[in-house]
Each structure stands twice: as structure tokens, then as C-alpha cells.
Amino acid sequence: MPKTDLLQGTLDLLILKVLTLGPNHGWGIANRIRQVSREGLNASQGSLYPALHRLELNGDVRSEMTASENNRRARVYTLTTAGRRRLGAEQESWEQFALSMRRVLKAE
């Protein structure tokens, strides 16, 4: 299956969802999106890191510099309470959008 460009606004939702699984660094978040989507979605670094920065400024995630497994420094992102609330609202909105799209695509 070819990789799909992410629709405007979906990257924040994907990042928030991945962070419900636990704290992660940028590469790990991008990798998890690829894994869970079965290689169908790809979050480029050029999109991922600005989105993480935006989410952090908004208070949806927080970050901390830590030592990685190979003793390199890595910025690890954690979902905040505000981020969990936003995820719930965004997920509900996305599900309504997807339902509407299915209705239109199945119309005869």
C-alpha cells in the first residue's frame, strides 16, 4: 500500500494518540505511526517536529531532555491532561468527519 500524505490537521491527532501509549521521542512517534498504520502513513520530520513544538506551546504535551538507550540525549514527549482532553474532542470530531465521508462515498 502506498504511503498517504497526512490530511491537514490529522498529525496532531495522531501524535496525541501515540502518546497515550506512553512517553516517546520524535523518531519513536513517527515510527509508531508507520507501524500502527501498517506503513500506510508517514509523518516526515519536517512536519512532525513543528507539530510537536506547536502541541507543546499549546500545553497538550510536555517535553524533557533525557538520555536514550545508547547514551545520547533525546527529547521525550509526554501527553498532558489538557492533551488527553483535546484528544477526546479531536477523535470525536474526526469520527464524525469519517462517517460523513463514508455516507457521501457510498451515495448512489
Structure description:
With 108 residues, this protein is α+β, with helices and mostly antiparallel strands. The chain has one domain: Winged helix-like DNA-binding domain superfamily/Winged helix DNA-binding domain (Arc Repressor Mutant, subunit A, Orthogonal Bundle), CATH 1.10.10.10. 56% of the residues lie in helices and 15% in strands. It contains 4 helices and 3 strands, in the order H-E-H-H-E-E-H. The chain has helices at residues 10-19, 26-36, 45-58, 81-106, and strands at 24-25, 61-67, 73-79. A 3-stranded antiparallel β-sheet has the order 1-3-2. Strand 2 (61-67) and strand 3 (73-79) form a beta hairpin. Helix 1 crosses helix 2. It starts with 9 loop residues before the first helix and ends with a helix. 19% of the residues are buried. The mean pLDDT is 90.
